[in-house]
Amino acid sequence: MIPSSETVGTAGPGRPRDPGVNRAILKAALRQLAEDGYSRMSMDAVASEAGVTKPTVYRRWSSKADLATAALAELQGAEPIPSTGSAPSDLKRILGTLQKTLFRPNGMAIIGAVMVEERHTPELITLFRERVVHPRRLMLREVLESAEAEGALRAGADLDAAVNMLIGSFYAHYLTGDKMPRTWARRIVDTVWKGIAKPGRRRAATRR
Questions:
Q1: CATH no. for 4-60
Q2: pLDDT tens digits for the chain (208 residues)?
Q3: Which of 6, 28, 94, 180 has the fewest CB within 10 Å, making it most exposed?
Q4: How many CA atoms lie within 13 A of 39 on its CB side?
């Protein structure tokens, strides 16, 4: 329970907000997304679970869609683009983090709770793509563009298709109902890399 001093009226203009309050609110939002779905998640319930008042939540996030996608972005975490000196290794690190995020308890259930709202809550989907989907895709794209600039990829390599294959493989595997192998990130990168790498550069691609 968050202390009552962190509820309405205690944070004046310019006063930094307690990160513990933010974490409690985001944690409550994630739990409700996973267990109740987006439609049954409510700002009142999140505030109650986090031990704060509803205005405290609204001072930080303007709507339920804003809060839900902020919670998902927090789940994903801030991740810098890796720079191991090898493009395939960097891709594997990015996808390894994605695998941990998607297959943590309720990870896929939360994503599903968001996607089912596509027709009914366009704001939610727009923010989800902006905060969760696009940053991960951009990281993969930047690694591939660096490899392309260094001459590691064959001419005309379809980078958009490669990014879709790398990320989409996780969702495709999940739908089979089989347990995701720990080696999946390595296997999918090795497979895709063989299709886009220039002959003679398929084992590795150095990055500056």
A1: 1.10.10.60
A2: 444 334 333 444 444 567 799 999 999 998 898 888 898 999 999 999 999 999 999 999 999 999 999 988 887 766 778 888 899 999 999 999 888 888 877 778 788 888 888 888 989 999 999 998 999 999 999 999 999 999 999 999 999 999 999 999 999 998 898 988 999 999 999 999 999 999 875 554 444 3
A3: 180
A4: 9
Of 142, 150, 149, 140, residue with least CA distance to 192: 140
Local structure of residue 6 (DSSP, 8 states): G
Structure tokens at 75: 């789940």
- Which one, of 171, 150, 162, lies nearest residue 192 by Cα? 162
Q: Which residue has 């490669």 as its token pair?
A: 162
The CATH superfamily assigned to 74-196 is Tetracycline Repressor, domain 2 (1.10.357.10)
Q: Which two tokens stand for residue 151?
A: 């001459």
Every domain of the chain with CATH number 1.10.10.60 lies at: 4-60
Nearest to 111 by CA among 68, 67, 57: 68
Rounded to whole angstroms, how far apart are CA atoms 8 and 10? 6
| Cβ-based neighbours of 197, under 8 Å, separated by 6 or more | 152, 153, 154, 205
Residue (of 63, 36, 66, 65) closest to 49 by Cα position? 36
Residues β-bridged to residue 86: 206
